[in-house]
């Protein structure tokens, strides 16, 4: 029966999506009852339907034209998690205020600047109008509204607290994006400095060193060892710069390709990154914070623990922690307590396990998980700030040794010539 219902819902959503794809966006102008000129946009199958709808609203249609599409970016920019968080907050506020869901979707869609997200919301609204529940309609876009999001919405619908759950989901997504942004910020600065240092070095080796090399050859001066090394490196780069670029680009693409295609390779890279000094500590704490926050949100929404862990496994941001959560799910399915299953993974600190055990005993697991999440989110923020303060002097040293050493090596023969004059 459940399978038949799911199949029926899927067909209904598919039919609604096919129907929506036939709609065209029109720009219209019309005169209202006072003779005032009005303008707006409307989706319809044809211009006649737009005019009929305007007349139904008491307006006199003047012009109805199909909305022109831009050559570039016609479908709109990518929908970001922050967009989904803002949408969740908006619809939660409207539902709490008593605005019907279909009307709330229409209001939010009309206020969207991102054409792609606007079209998504229109399709979801149409599916809801066709009889689908919200979590079923969100299944039209499983990338933007992942399994975890849909499970939380389903739990909220079942418990009759959808507005509260959506508000909680918005807070959750905002916190997760905040953690990601902090980690990216910590890594972006040193990576960009190293890239700039590499480009400066290549420019020196390709264009500056050959000029000095010609000067040294004309002066017939014997080159010191550091200068000879730089000259040899310059000759190598001039001869094989294309091979170097090919190796670098090929290595990056190969890394991405094998990480996506090979689970073992992805697992190896993830374990390696978790063991890196400083960086590994941040990634570990980030994974624990995301695990605790996600499980706390799902459990608070009323999702059964086994189902919650199934959704949480993909939200930790780590293959290693994701596999550990799946192992915990299997242990709990056969009757083990959460704290015991966590202990078996050997990934979670004793404090996290103990707080989980207290939460289970006291019947306040979600509250304890939120406390763990808050603690580790603060730890991540502190670790990121510490990393930034440690990297700044280290980067200066690297730049000084790399670029400064190269410049000094080029001037050593000049100093030698000046000493013989």
Automatic annotation (TrEMBL):
Cellular localization per UniProt: Cell inner membrane
Membrane topology classification: Multi-pass membrane protein
Record carries keyword Nucleotide-binding: no
Record's keyword terms, sorted: Cell inner membrane, Cell membrane, Membrane, Transmembrane, Transmembrane helix, Transport
Pfam families: T2SSF
GO biological process: protein secretion by the type II secretion system
InterPro entries, per the entry: GspF/PilC, T2SS_GspF/T4SS_PilC_CS, T2SS_GspF_dom, T2SS_GspF_sf
Main location: membrane
Organism: Luteibacter rhizovicinus DSM 16549
Similarity field: Belongs to the GSP F family.
Keyword field contains Transmembrane helix: yes
GO cellular component, one term: plasma membrane
Name of the protein in question: Type II secretory pathway protein
């Amino acid at each position: 029966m459940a399978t038949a219902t799911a199949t029926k819902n899927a067909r209904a959503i598919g039919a609604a999506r096919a129907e929506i794809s036939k709609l065209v966006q029109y720009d219209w102008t019309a005169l209202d009852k006072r003779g005032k000129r009005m303008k707006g946009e409307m989706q319809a199958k044809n211009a006649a339907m737009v005019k009929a709808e305007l007349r139904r609203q008491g307006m006199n249609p003047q012009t109805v034209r199909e909305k022109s599409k831009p050559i570039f970016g016609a479908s709109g920019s990518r929908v970001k998690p922050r967009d989904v968080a803002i949408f969740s907050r908006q619809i939660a506020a409207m539902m709490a205020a008593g605005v019907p869901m279909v009307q709330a979707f229409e209001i939010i869609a009309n206020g969207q600047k991102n054409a792609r997200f606007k079209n998504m919301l229109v399709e979801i609204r149409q599916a809801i109008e066709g009889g689908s529940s919200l979590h079923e309609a969100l299944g039209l876009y499983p990338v933007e509204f992942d399994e975890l999001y849909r499970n939380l919405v389903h739990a909220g619908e079942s418990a009759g607290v959808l507005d509260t759950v959506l508000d909680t989901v918005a807070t959750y997504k905002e916190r997760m994006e905040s953690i990601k942004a902090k980690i990216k910020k910590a890594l972006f600065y040193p990576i960009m400095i190293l890239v700039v240092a590499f480009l400066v070095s290549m420019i020196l080796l390709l264009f500056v060193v050959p000029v000095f090399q010609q000067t040294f050859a004309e002066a017939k001066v014997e080159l010191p060892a550091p200068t000879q090394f730089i000259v040899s490196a310059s000759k190598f780069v001039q001869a094989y710069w294309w091979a170097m670029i090919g190796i670098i680009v090929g290595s990056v693409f190969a890394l991405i390709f094998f990480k996506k295609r090979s689970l073992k390779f992805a697992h190896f890279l993830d374990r390696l990154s978790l063991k890196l000094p400083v960086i590994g500590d941040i990634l570990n704490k980030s994974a624990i914070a995301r695990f605790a926050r996600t499980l706390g949100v799902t459990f608070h929404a009323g999702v059964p623990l086994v189902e919650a862990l199934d959704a949480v496994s993909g939200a930790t941001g780590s293959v290693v922690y994701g596999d550990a959560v799946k192992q915990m799910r299997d242990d709990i399915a056969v009757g083990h307590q959460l704290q015991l299953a966590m202990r078996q993974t050997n990934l979670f600190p004793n404090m996290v396990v103990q707080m989980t055990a207290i939460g289970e005993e006291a019947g306040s697991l979600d509250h304890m998980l939120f406390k763990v999440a808050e603690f580790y989110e603060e730890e991540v923020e502190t670790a990121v700030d510490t990393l930034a303060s440690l990297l700044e002097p280290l980067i200066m040293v690297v730049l000084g040794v790399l670029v400064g050493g190269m410049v000094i090596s080029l001037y050593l023969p000049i100093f030698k010539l000046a000493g013989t004059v």
